[in-house]
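Internal QA ticket QA-208
Title: Verify multi-chain structure generation after dependency bump
Assignee: T.L.

Test input:
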Amino acid sequence: MHEQSLFASVPVHQHHELLQQLAGLTAMQPRHCLERRLIFKAYRKPGMAGRIGASQDLQQGDLQRLNKMLNGNMYYTQVVGPVSESDFGSTAPVDQDTQMAGMDDSKPYDPSSPSYDYERQPWKLEFRDIPEAGTRSAVTSRLMSSATLPRGDVVEAMNAWGYHFITEYVVEGDMFVLNDIAIFLHRVLHYPGGDESNLPRRQLPALKDMALFEKSGSYVLQAFTIVQDGSNQETMKTASQHLFGLREQLKSAVLLEQADRLSLDTRAK
Amino acid sequence: MPITGVYFIPSNPNASTALPVITERIRAAFPNEELTPIGRWGLEQKLLRDTQGLLPSSNSNKKPSNPRYMQFLSLTHYPTHGFIYTSEPEKPIPAPNQNPNQAVPGPANAIAPDHSPSPPMVMTTIPPSSYGTLFQHFTYACQPFWSHRLTLTVPNGIVYEVGDFRVRLGDVRQTFPTARVRGTVVEIEWCGPSVVEAIPVDREDGSFDVGVGAGGDCDVDVGGVGIDLASSAIEESDIDAEYAATASLIREFWGRLGVEAREAILIPNVGREVKDRLRRWKKAGSGADTKVDRTGSVVGERAEEDPDPWSGADVARQFMEVLRFNR
Amino acid sequence: MSNLTQEQIKVLEQSRQRLVQLTRSLGSLIASLNQSDPLPPWTSLQSQASIISNNLISVSDQLSDQRDLLSNLVAYPGPEYPGRTQANTLEQLLRTKLDPRVEDWVARGRAAGTESATTPSNFSDPDTAHKPLTDAQLAELWEWAPLEANQEARRRNWGGNFTLEEREAGIENVVTGLRRQLEDDDDGEEESEGEGEEGDGEEMDVVGVHRKPGAAEFEYNIAPHHPHPVQPFVPLDLILRYMTTGRMP
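Actual output:
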């Protein structure tokens, strides 16, 4: 699959108006989303690369193939999970045993009170390649894939697969859909208290305690189209033309542009 | 989740398949059973191996120790998900900020025997739609450390019912990198009454469904045979005992056939998901009262909901154990 | 007094025709503005305007060419004129002075004509460029400028004192017309505190023109979208980089 995108930076004072403009343009109400995003990075045992010498076990052709393989790219990848506002600042689900104990103290237990259960958090592995080089068209085009992972803790599996956890943040934003284009107006929220944890959080702080990554509170506007078959030049062209059409429509409000390729470089060095 | 055992008979120059032999032995050992196929089944396994294992050691011909594997398995009798079974990393993962240049003991220091125990493995199940996507991801984005070594399939296996057992038989064919016959695989599933089946499957919303077959489609009415227990009545030790007892039944069954084979029954981590489920069930106590409504928080995810994402994990482990060819 | 000659009648007839043409083209412009929905394209409006302008020129030429004749002509009703039924028309025809409304128009036209004739174009000559504007001109300017500035501002993403083009060309070259020094405060450091959370504040289009106490100059606040525009501190590419790899900028 390929993702074609255009991006824009939206100052906070323009956010409200742009939301309304987008709602008008797409004839839909914004769909508010909150996502946990975990960043993972592929790791390789140190000293692996470039260590292959000639050996009687390997044919020359095999050796070349192996060399190419071993010196291939490794990547950052994201694990993304939807959360809801009520997940923030809520406690873990009440353990039945402790609840019983609580009942003795005649503390009322409210089963409908919100709780966040990390063990049931759904996740998706979202991979994006570095955007294609060259400027055939002025959109950011990159290979992508998205796969559902099991609920709950993904770190054990991710570690086994060759990825380690780097950091995590929350994205809040609003999603619109216009024909084949998805429009996501979003910004990054940080967890309070820095990054001392080397594991994803099992509980989420109150939403109001989350800090803005970009201190002015500006938003990122991403308009994107996903093309199932990236090798089909016709569909790729159609998709980018639709994005250009949107750019024209939004011209007086925001300037949608191709992103700096290296800013979206997912290669792990 | 039924208790199972898996046997693999490698092909040899005299007999590429053991299928006719086994069918004949079952017929002979259970003369009172009518041996007619009740269905078909299939399997596909893709095996990836860490690239370190492929490298000839630069200074010696010693085989690298502890090869790591990643196995993708799909079974037609568990159509709601695929299985990924991956070796755990050998040592704690270095912190991201650690100096990558610092000396790390290379495999040359580890004078390991040829058949060193493989590292423990992590089971993951994923919806079918993600199965191919993830495989592609590893072959595309993880080339420097994962290498696709082979693909095996059981294209059209046969299912028999023999007494309290369900038997799945099939020839294992290698389709990648070259086509060849690898042998014959047999899955024996215990369909009799089982404590394990009495543990209800918990749904994604945290409530429990009593009586939903956890992938086990044996027509044994669990309640009917008298196993209808409260969560407090089952302990983890009961589950271990149950697995051990059933394993001996399966071994006894296999023993009557007199075929030599590689066996996978009580392998590491078998029963782990069942115990997890028991733990959750006990925690939930009286069950449906603790429903946590998460609907609405996950938009568009419902379609992929798997009623029991961990069903079949045991048998998947067993298949992958016998099909983990070292190459 | 004698009867008009054929020549003179012809002149009158010509004048009448030109005036009819002018009325018609004005009428058609008014009609197209009133009736067509959406408004006619600007090209058609412009061509109508130039037709009217041509008509005006030919009327004006005609009137000035025949000034002698026309100023000497006197109208009076003949005996056969239906004075009772057409009294209104008769009054109009017999007026010797202009209708007060028309008198107004003429006066304004004259004034405009003499001004443009006596005041040279504002910036052709550096000396005259610094000549202070008359009160009327100032009033006119202030009436015009806020609307125009607002329109211009709507087209841009304003935040600082200078436009991107101006900054690229070097702000020292910008003619602000102001005596005080404008700071290029694009960094926005001083307005950073505490403004990040104001996204939900009431938003309105504000163009304020006010006199600073004790200062001679006027100060403009052009904020088309928000009373406190806040530009992002972290550029888009650094945000994307963080989102991709978790690397702090």
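Spot checks passed. Chain C has two domains: 1-76+90-98, 135-191+202-249.
Status: verified.
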